[in-house]
Structure formats: C-alpha cells, structure tokens
C-alpha cells in the first residue's frame, strides 16, 4: 500500500514489482534467474477491474450490514470500526492486483498525481459503482426486512434540512481530502511511501466516521452512497455524497502536485 506492496496504487506500476519478486523466487528455487514473464492482457486490464468490483462489493456489503444491524448502545463506534477494518483488510489483500482503490475519488486523485493511466480510470469507477450496488443488494438479502427498512438500507439519510446541507458538504470535502491525502502520501509519493498504508487508511476512516458521523454520515465514497440509494430508492441530497468526496479527492491531489509531493509529482518549486 516499492508501491505495489503498499496498496492503493496504480495498476500500471504493479507488473514490474511482481516480476522482480518472481525472479527472486526463481533464484531461490533453482539457483538461476529466468526471463521475466510479460503480464497477459487479462492481468493488466481485466483482473484489476474485477478486483475493484469485488473489493468494493465486499466493502459496501460489510459497511451496510454494520449500519443496518447497528446496536443502538454502540452508537457510531460499530460502523466506524467495521468500515475502517474492512478497508484495511481489503486494501492489504487486493493491493497486488488492482491497487485497492474501491473509491472513485481515490482513483481520480491517483490519476491526477500520475499514478495510473487515463484508460483505466473510467473502467475502475464503473466497476466500483457496480460493486457498490451488488454489495448493497447482498446486505438486503442478509438482514431482516424490518431492520433494513428502519435503516433505509444504510443509505445516507442524516440530512433532513437545508440548514444542515453546507456543513455536511464541507465535512465530506474535508474528510475525503484527509483520507485521500493519506492514500497519496502513503502509497504514491516516493518520499513518504509506507508499508503501513492499509492500517493508516483504515484508521483515518475510523477517525472520520467517529468525528463526522452525526453531521454528514461520513460517506467519503460515492460507490458506498450509490449502492444503498439504488436499492432503497432514497435520493434526498444524494448529490452531496458525490460532489463532496470528489472535490475532496481533487483537493488532496492538488496539495501533492503543488506543495507536498516529491520532485516527480510536484509541478512547481522543484
């Protein structure tokens, strides 16, 4: 979450590291390195998209169930821990395949700082949204009809009035900027890459939900909002959970491009 083993990275940078690891394993096995195998089209283009769909599906599924079956005494703690731990686990195990984005703002931000090619951006986002819908459907199958109805399918229903709107929008921008900045600094930026990225991102999600859950619901991910909205047919102020996270991701990318990135990423003051 080198970049492929750190998570939340581009699909483009993964084959080289995998080939280096393959060569190392071959040397240990028979004492003589063999020529590197060129990744197939399936491994370069199709498999990463499948990983994004499956990873987002399970993240949304687990997240929705944690909200639908939330124990009242636990308050925000149960959904916060479930979402954060699910992110950490999925990032760690899918990093070598797709980079473990599972979130359109992450994909957009990683592209904007040069971490992936444009050709993969739209397929990634489409797969994330499809995964979100499937995950939300899985949560509906698993939970009781009464609990599902009471929680509106884990759609974001916390915004009720116009006077709540702008604070919630600002919160989605700021909190998504924070978690995206953690992703970019920990997994893409050369000077600050860290093997702790899954833990760091998971903890940031937990902290954000605990801090802002009562204000906006702390979505930070349009795929997480879209799936439950489709299944529950609940669209009130749904745009907040697209505009806020995407703006937050773009802002994080801008911070790296202008101020925080290493020489390869930074556009000015090199």
Walkthrough of the structure:
The protein has 270 residues and is an all-alpha fold. It contains ten helices and no strands. It has helices spanning 14-30, 41-68, 77-94, 104-112, 121-142, 145-150, 165-187, 197-212, 222-232, 240-260. Helix 2 (41-68) packs across helix 9 (222-232), helix 4 runs antiparallel to helix 5 and helix 7 (165-187) packs across helix 10 (240-260). The two termini are 26 Å apart.
Overall form: globular
Sheet bearing the most strands, described? none
Helix content: 55-70%
Mean of residue pLDDT values: 88
How many helix segments?
Answer: 10
Beta-strand content: under 5%
The quaternary structure here is single chain
Class by alpha and beta content: mainly alpha
Low-confidence blocks of residues: 1-35
User: Could you give the order of the helices and strands?
Assistant: HHHHHHHHHH
**Count of DSSP strands:** 0
In angstroms, what is the radius of gyration? 19 Å
- End-to-end Cα distance: 26 Å
